[in-house]
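Mods, move this if it's the wrong board.
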Amino acid sequence: MVERIIPIQMEDDDNSGEESGANANGNVNSDTTKESCVENSQEKSDHKESSPNNEKEQKLLILIKPMSKTKDLLENLKKYDVFEERSKFSLPNINVPEKIILVIDRAQDEHCTSFAEANGKYTPLSMLRKSLHLFVNLKHSINKNHEFAIVLLNENTATWALPFTSELRKVNNCIEKITQCEVEDTFNMNLVFEEILPNIKIPQDEIAPPYIIRTIICYGRSYTIPEIKFSEKIVKLLDNPFFICDVLMTHEPVDDSNYCNKIFECLQNIDRKGISYFFPVGRSALRLHNSMAKLLGHGLQRPFQTFHKE
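Not the wrong board. Structure tokens:
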């Protein structure tokens, strides 16, 4: 089961951790907090002259105020230290243009299950094309400066099919012309990034960057576990704060005859920073479109995704 951390509001206060006025259920008592603030400010003024290291000893308290006081959200806040994760990869929360690389898997497993909708059945590739058309059009309507490129996963190779462009017609035409191919027993995921590296230029370490690069890997094989042994150049790319790699996996219903779980766990190793999105959608059209809607979120503005493994 996959859940996302819900955005929370932060306020700085001068209280100590024990005087925050937060009760055991995670609720904040505003009266208690105000009293603690007054007491702490008086104590700081009384001891300012007598204690030269007073500023170092004082600790600022960050109050956690969930936007929704539901039981599930409070449990998430107890289990996960949101602020440590966010401060570890502190990036500007701004809407710079995104250069999005759509990595589309052409391979289709033999005797694969179809996507079922009210108006008929669709092959995995045709349903993926349909959702990608919606994604590209909606993303372009949000910011017309976003650019798209396309990389195709063939039997055992990767091809740079479309350079970066903001022209919707070119992107949609390229998506529509994608045809399916057969599946091989192995696939080297290094080929994808070796195809990407010469075609991109990562922004320098500047705040804010002129753009960010986001790769969305749409992997559709349920019996081929990808080989992931990254070179030093690829590791450097994946570690760059302005390069994000999301994964969406269309797969057969999970059972003992396929390797869906192993493939998904393997693809999670691509994320080295903890900021990527991973969505296994199976053969559910609803889940596919919902996941594509979540991928519309900007790489620098969206919340982190949290995994709960049963």
